Amino acid sequence: DWSLDDKDAVLARGHAARDEFQREFFEPSLERRKRRIAEARARGENVDALATDMLSLMVVHREDTWKSDDMLLLREVNGFITGSTQTTANGFISLALRLERWFDKHPEDRALIDTDPEFLRRAAFESLRLTVAPPARIRTATEDVTLSSGRTIKAGQSVAMYFVPANMNEDRFGELAEEFNPRRNVADGVPPWGIAFG
């Protein structure tokens, strides 16, 4: 969605990366787990105790949950990888880094971590506003529509809402909206996290 390159070329690179990941990491990991679980079954052991990670869990329960779809497990693993890098899941790390920089400039605020849960809540919201995983939300119109601004979008036309510029709007988020400020006051009716969640 975000690349300016030819979409077929981008998809080909993505498929090549997925295939490399499957060959080098996924398949060896899966085979080790299958072998360990098969050996435990052969010894008559309870294999449920071996299901301590997602791959092992799915191998233990393959027959009753996904026996007809060999690619499901790879898709699930890829979903977890995407979820850990291209969502707000990385927000805690960003919050910690931003707070440390804030405390360098405002050392008196460090004590608020222990004494003021509202300070931490506001800091988390502020960090989320600045930590937007995708650059835009893209939609394709299914019918002609006229926006409140008077702009017309034709059926089949794609439109994008750019998160970062929207979350930096000074009318909504005040002066220096591009900077982290856990003491920020936002306009009435505006969520302090902006549109971090779409």
Looking across the biggest beta sheet, what order are the strands in? 1-4
Gross morphology: flat
Helical residue percent band: 40-55%
Q: What is the terminal-to-terminal distance? A: 15 Å
Main sheet summary: 2 strands, antiparallel
Q: What's the average pLDDT?
A: 89
SSE string: HHHHHHHEEEEHH
Strand content: 5-15%
Structural class: mainly alpha
Q: What does the model show?
A:
By secondary structure, the protein is mainly alpha-helical. The protein is built from 9 helices and 4 strands, in the order αααααααββββαα. The protein has helices spanning 7-42, 54-60, 62-65, 72-85, 91-105, 112-115, 117-130, 163-167, 170-173; strands spanning 136-140, 145-146, 152-153, 158-162. The chain has a two-stranded antiparallel ribbon. A hairpin with a 5-residue loop joins strand 2 and strand 3. Helix 1 crosses helix 2 (54-60) and helix 5 packs across helix 7 (117-130). The two termini are 15 Å apart.
